[in-house]
Amino acid sequence: MSHRQPSPSPRRRSVLRGSLAVPAALAVPALTGAAPSLALSGRPKADWGVQAGDVTAHAGLVWVRSDRTARMIVETSATESFRNPRRWHGPVLGPDTDFTGTTRLRGLPAGEQIHYRVLLADPDDPRRTSQPVTGTFRTSPKGRKEDVRFLWSGDIAGQGWGINPDRGGYRVFEEMRRRDPDFFLCSGDNIYADGPILPSVTLPDGTVWRNVTTEEKSKVAESLTEFRGAFRYNLLDENLRRFNAQVPSIVQWDDHEVHNNWYPGQILNDARYTEKDVNVLAARSLRAFSEYFPISTLPPGDEEGRVYRVLRHGPLLDVFVLDMRSYRNANSPGRQPDDTTGILGARQLAWLKRELSRSRAVWKVIASDMPLGLVVPDGSTNFEAVAQGDPGAPLGRELQIAELLRHIKHRGITGTLWLTADVHYTSAQHYDPSRAAFKDFAPFWEFVSGPLSAGGFPATKLDGTFGPEQPFIKAPSRANTSPAETPQYFGEVDIDGGSGVLTVRLRQEGGGVLFTQELQPGRVGQ
After folding, report:
1. Rg of the chain (C-alpha set)
2. At what angle do helices 238-246 and 10-20 cross, to 10 degrees?
3. 26 pLDDT exceeds 50?
4. Final residue of a domain: which of 111, 139, 167?
5. 3-state secondary structure 340-396
6. Is pLDDT at 122 greater than 50 in this prediction?
7. 115 and 161 share one domain
């Protein structure tokens, strides 16, 4: 099996030099977190960098934020010299979107390196433009022979562990950038809206963890302004901005974009909040989420506002992005003998079954924001994820997963595997009907990797309903260990274009490979 090396390949080496040499993309924005002024002098600025997202063979989204009202203009080219560029006129960025915006690029060549640069033009004087901010991405391949590499993880700025300048900020993003992936899958908890960032935290050994702080991150997020500030916080990190300029993203969300373990209709019992209605908070967060990430199924691209979607990455790979947060029923003991709402909702489950059946990709990655067989409690009696600790026949939310797994088996859908983060450690689970109470499914793998910058937590128990076995796990022995005490984790997937073999590697910050699993193509179960 041929693997790309972590150093940049020849086709990208000049790209990396170019992206590192753009002062505008890497300039540290003002740390006040305040919204831009509408009456600033000079030219517009894009100090928050650029992002690309939901890239396919012929399309992709490019994101930017201005420091004032400005017209977004994107130029693309096959080379970083930008000779004979193609120009795309994007939206006017204003206060209604917190001066952010995305431009959809269509008609791109498949399997090619796309260089892009974003300019911001004064709406009243188009000759007054910002310095260009550059980025790059590679469109999905048209043929099967092209190797695929992507990374996944989640959980950023959680439990009070924010951007620490003494440690070089979110340095794991620089490590991931050097892996040269085709894209990054963020499995949720992109922010911790319910977790304020304090200036300092004293560690158990007496040393002090220092955080970059902002006004919006000094309290829990309730207002739209505070949610916007929470999403903006991570972009203060230079490593993340550099990563965004080189690696396109596929982003999903989970609970901490709003509040720990939230579900629709919940009324919070949290003294820190004056707004107790989680539906109000979720709507504000989703608006800010759609403003700060380039996502094809959220406004302005799609007024329906879905987070769940499928991204097709050539003949080898389809990525099915789930939303296990927005359509779930209330957290409970999970012992219902009949549950049509479950954790996905009936409509999303029907969509997933339909799209999996239609997929002709060799590999079908199900990007789940929560694990299947790990027992994640919510208080003393309720459960937050799918599993509820009863190893018997499916009950509660397990019923939906059983229905989905049965569908995959009976339709002969090959090459499925599940990727997630959420639990703040890394592990591998293999599910097999020979060990399970529910037996009408084909064997499959689930891999967990995270956090990227959050507290580490001890491992949770396994639920035997779907017969999980855990050949690898690495987790701290106590709750909320800081990133200074335990490594941060991310996962890597390589698909060989020649053989179709898929290899998963669970990695930790610092370059170590903790676990490797090779999967063969064309099988219903592994």
Report:
1. 22
2. 140
3. no
4. 139
5. CCCCCCHHHHHHHHHHHHHCCCCEEEEECCCCCCECCEECCCEECCCCCCCCCCCCC
6. yes
7. no
